[in-house]
Amino acid sequence: EEAIRVGKGPYDMIAFAYCGLATCFQAMGIYEKAVNYFVCYLDVARKMKDDEIECGALNNLGVAEYSIGNYTVAIADHLQGLQIATKRDDQPSRMKSFANLGKWKYPAYF
Fold it and tell me: Helices in the chain by DSSP H: which ranges?
């Protein structure tokens, strides 16, 4: 966290540091903190103008939002990720978005 506060380094390294922190908090079940770091990850991805990283950040954020019961926000995140993946013709990312969206249509399978 201190390295990120200093703000030195390339944007991609800062983005992945946020992603790593978010993933750790998510794994520990501290979902609100995970959401906060995924939002930071998304903000940096957008500053970088990197669609691939932005798409991944949106999918990760959607999963974290789902974990705290923010279903409408989670769906919106996944739909944004799906839109970016479709524009990029990125099939793996499209599949991730569709799979995450499937949690709401078929919750018994997840």
Answer: 2-6, 11-27, 31-48, 51-67, 71-88, 91-105
